[in-house]
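Justification of resources, computational component.

The compute hours requested in this renewal are based largely on the per-chain cost of generating structure records like the one below. Each record pairs the submitted sequence with a full structure-token output. That output is archived, and it is also reused by downstream analysis tasks.
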Amino acid sequence: MHRFLQAIGFSNINSRNDMDKLIGIIMDQPNVIKKAAPVNNNIYTEITKEFTPHTGITLRGEYDKLGFFHVEHYFPYCESILITSHEDVVINKRVDTSAFTGMCDDLRLGISMIFYLQNAVDYMQLNCPDNTPRRAKLSLSGLSLQGSIILGLEQNEASREKKNYEAHIRNRLIAQAKNGDQDAIDSLTVDEIDLSSRINRRIKHEDLYSIVETSFIPYGSESDNYYILGTIVNCNRMTNSYSGEDIYQLLIRCNGIVMNICINCKDLIGEPMAGRRFKGIIWMQGHADFNPV
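The structure output for this chain reads:
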């Protein structure tokens, strides 16, 4: 069983028979079916069914020349309708299955962000070689098996505007530094030294989470898993139409980017509200729109 099924309300799927029954329902009552160009008389296909708005399960496999569908793998998903970034995205095929991971350099995070590609068929139809940067509109989301709610930081309008301005200047310096601008590199180095000094002074008298508002850190050996701390922008509680379990969909702002996080209500400690913060580990997913603008 896919371990992240629990995040979208399927903690009661405990055996292969339970999963086979669920796969049968998805194939009989799909919401979306996407097909790629035939290869060797087989048609690679994605079959998707929603169980709450914006969350569900996608089956991937092939229709053979006799019309039988062979399931290769499946994955639970949570999708976002908001555009997170518009950057060059590099896609690579996984070794074990016909699944793909994407990588995007977003200056706001300061790292190369890796995610599981939700719309593999759309990418396959491009017929482009892997590891080739392509401009895309990227919508990020994540599934979590464990999280907690902590209080947010009180800020006035002036402090928010100052923080946004400083972030804009920093992103511009990072972009210049990536192009080899030595002045930008020196300026970033001085800023890091000054920031480290301020943190060392404050940590003696303040709690860590009063200093660090948000964070985005790679977690574990899986390249698309992250430990995040982000501010909740919006929160919705929904019920899985199949299992009857309640889940939360949290719109999170983390290091300047916005993503949709889904977690089972019984796996979340605390009461989510706008302005509070979510802290937990997520499996990052992304939908990349490669259509030219």
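The first strand starts at residue 32 and ends at 35. The radius of gyration is 21 Å.
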